[in-house]
Amino acid sequence: MVTDTRYGAGDSGPGDETPGPSSFPADSDSTSLGEPPASAGVVFGERLALAGRYAQLLATEGVVRGLIGPRETPRLWERHLVNCGVMAEMIPTGATVVDVGSGAGLPGLVLAVARPDLAITLVEPLARRTSFLDEAVVVLGLDNVTVVRGRAEEVVGQLPGADVVTARAVAALDKLAGWCLPLAAVGGRLLAMKGSTAVDEIVEHAATVQGLGGGPAVIHLCGEGLIDPPTTIVEIAKERHVVPGRRSVASASGSSASGRRGGRGRSRRG
Ligand SMILES: C[S@@+](CC[C@H](N)C(=O)[O-])C[C@H]1O[C@@H](n2cnc3c(N)ncnc32)[C@H](O)[C@@H]1O
Fold first, then answer.
1. What residue range is the signal peptide (predicted)?
2. CA 28 to the chain's CA centroid
3. ipTM of model over 0.95
4. Number of H helices and number of E strands within the chain?
5. What is the pLDDT of residues 251-264, one digit of tens each?
6. pTM across the whole model
7. So what's the architecture of 38-269 in CATH?
8. Using CA positions, which residue lies closest to atom 9 of ligand 1?
9. Which of 16, 195, 211, 248 is close enough to 240 for a disulfide, judged by CB 3.0 to 4.6 Å?
10. Ligand 1 centre and the CA of 254: distance in Å?
11. How do residues 19-36 score in pLDDT, each as one tens digit?
12. How far is the CA of 6 from the centre of ligand 1 (A)?
């Protein structure tokens, strides 16, 4: 699991309010990217070439614009694209997805590439990153993606409640639940990519998550047998809507979206 990207949670990075160039160069050098591993073929299938184009953008403009560390380039496929792509197994067909804190598009753009059936909204506050995302969406021809510039907590109420809210390397689970659960529909789910801290975070923040309307956290290991280590996902169902500072106002019904999940990953309660 990759949580050691260049920026810490909520870190803006220097110069992030300055948008980058308005378009990507026509030809980009991607010599250090390497060939996609076999696992990428499994994750992306017939969309592998498109995934390769995205990897190329990350390795070139992503690095030039300071969104991806240069040392990440040789391991973009394994540690970023495939690592994120395997979480698609937890997302039902045709779901609406909001990716909070997308950065350079991880995992949101990866999911959009792998799963054209999904309707994905990328929420990212920093202009340099949303410029990159906007341009990547055009270059890759992804008509299933909307980019929204803003902090998650600022766009609550502006977006329809999502079936799934994703996040990778954005914040600790208590803060993350506070940002992400309000963006989910009742019955929807937060899928947080986490590393070795997953169990500790679940235990430490259980009461906070419950107070935010979340159900018990479940740990899933995605991509087992395909990647080593598999990707750790903390899943939290939104059981009721909680208006910040107020009591809950609605409960999940039996026909909630949580009953439609793919759920092929191994899971256990944390
Ligand atoms: C460490 S980066 C991770 C980026 C990407 N998810 C990845 O895994 O490479 C954290 C991202 O979260 C964004 N972020 C921080 N606070 C946020 C908030 N309140 N709402 C939405 N995004 C936020 C930052 O701008 C940054 O792009």
1. none
2. 25
3. yes
4. 10, 10
5. 554 433 333 334 44
6. 0.85
7. 3-Layer(aba) Sandwich (3.40)
8. 106
9. 248
10. 33
11. 444 566 654 454 578 899
12. 11
